[in-house]
Specification:
- By secondary structure, the first copy, chain A, is an alpha+beta fold.
- Helices cover 36% and strands 21% of the residues of chain A.
- The first copy, chain A, has a 5-stranded antiparallel beta sheet with strand order 1-2-9-4-7. A 4-stranded antiparallel beta sheet of chain A has the order 3-8-5-6.
- In chain A, helix 5 (182-199) packs across helix 7 (224-236).
- Chain A starts with 19 loop residues before the first helix and ends with a helix.
- The structure holds a DNA duplex (30 and 30 nucleotides).
Chain lengths: 263, 263
DNA sequence: ATCGCGGCTTGACGTGGATCAACGCGCGCG
DNA sequence: CGCGCGCGTTGATCCACGTCAAGCCGCGAT
């Protein structure tokens, strides 16, 4: 697939990186809102907004939910589409992104287990979302969800809290995109991934990267080549070790923090 | 004052642009929480979260508020400081920013009349804030504000709404910072300012820029020089007219939208 | 008046990262 | 098995924007 051209608006036919063919296949749905109580055994609940709801009222939540499985690359939110559903990721990782008309892409974030998605301001989605690898999620119709918000004030409070958290990350990312060098961006990214991973119980020095170099590039406002060279240089400088393309080991965390711009 | 060096981490002594001398003079306070009902006559209320509260309960809000006047350049939030207050801007404009240790600055947004500030996630502020010109605001102690949130659910809902709005803007800004050219950034910025201005009742083609070129540069992830050259080129291309440095007239809005990357 | 200063513009030049191109590797598939 | 393809790496070259420098303007202070 053609590499997009971040700095040129006059490229011939710049296709978006996400392959359109695999992007919007029908999603495999498991309509299990009625059976048992899936929410009670959901292993994403502990890290999600759902745990704002007490055990004995979980069935109210479960009744509104539908779970689904997505294949790698499959899209489930299209920017500009009517915002009909809310989503909660139960396993896997999604990329959230915005596109320019000529195909340039900015990934605004990665969403993992427990991440709540689709809280649109207006009635259309402000960004697109695609599964990076195999992914599962549960899904709520907008109207049911709004009803649940009325019913559970704690849920609304959790949502406000997560919105503010995301706002803080977004501001951090603006600093990165506006003012950091390629090396600083990559180092910051690795440190953030390490922190996110260790919060999920991984070893603190071991980083798993489910996304491709193109995803990383579009997240950091760089090109694939610059990301690749950046990894190579960090390795040659002894800051990291590369165990294949998708696994990074931090060898010198102090130096990496230093290379990240030291915040 | 020395221009900061976005692309070099080894600059000798890069001072932050905000002059430290004027930044944290004591703020002029008007302790009027007791007198009359300032909130009822506040001309920022209609555009602020405050209007989520009914007229007859405004005194509850007013009792917690203290108004203050700030001089140009004066800071009122320092990144990393304990988050003791919430702020509501009643006139003027503030810049919100994050700094790197070497002085590089990223302005994450501009806050005008009605903008609500200081909703920190943790107990410290995640960004700094300074008045651009003369500014007035009202201020709430954190504890009182949290009490008000409990009392007025509509206030909390408005806050969630504004947080989501800001998140959408932040994502838009990430797209700008990560993937747009200097010309596109500047055009997008002018269009956004025009929209913000016309929402406040200004003529749709007339843009007032209260901030300096340095502010614009730090907001768009560029340098002063590039911003200045960008303005000059947009003028020479007939898209805008410059009436002094702080006033821009849009001469060809379609072309400007085109130059902005066409979203 | 004139001096200093901060903000803005403009020109000349340097460079970080984009672009273009080639190649290697792993993997699914005919 | 070997072919094609997607992904990652690396090298050569280019260019948009950063850096450095000079000069202008408006304004407030002496």
């Amino acid at each position: 697939m053609a590499q997009t051209s971040p700095m040129r608006a006059d490229v011939a036919m710049p296709t978006a990186r996400a392959s359109a063919t695999t992007s919007f296949r029908p999603i495999v749905i498991h309509p299990d809102g009625a059976l048992g109580d899936p929410c009670a055994h959901c292993d994403a609940r502990s890290v999600s907004v759902c745990n704002a709801i007490e055990d004995d009222r979980l069935p109210r939540l479960a009744a509104a939910a539908v779970t689904a499985t997505l294949a790698p690359g499959q899209g489930f939110i299209a920017e500009g589409d009517p915002a009909t559903h809310f989503f909660n990721i139960t396993s896997g990782t999604a990329r959230l992104f915005k596109l320019l008309p000529d195909g340039r892409r900015q990934i605004t974030g990665f969403a993992g287990r427990g991440h709540f998605l689709g809280l649109a301001v207006s009635d259309t989605y402000a960004f697109g979302a695609e599964a990076i690898g195999p992914m599962t999620m549960c899904r709520f119709p907008r109207s049911r969800m709004l009803g649940l918000l009325d019913e559970f004030r704690a849920l609304e409070q959790r949502l406000l809290e997560t919105a503010r958290n995301e706002l803080v990350s977004a501001q951090e990312q603006m600093l990165l995109l506006g003012r950091k060098t390629a090396r600083e961006r990559l180092s910051s990214f690795l440190l953030a991934q390490a922190r996110a991973g260790s919060a999920c119980g991984h070893a603190a020095h071991q980083i798993d990267l489910p996304m491709t170099r193109a995803d990383i590039a579009d997240y950091l406002g760089l090109t694939i080549e610059t990301v690749s060279r950046g990894f190579t240089r960090l390795r040659n400088d002894g800051l990291i070790r590369l165990d294949g393309a998708n696994s990074v080991h931090i060898r010198n965390i102090a130096a990496l923090e230093d290379a990240a711009g030291g915040v």
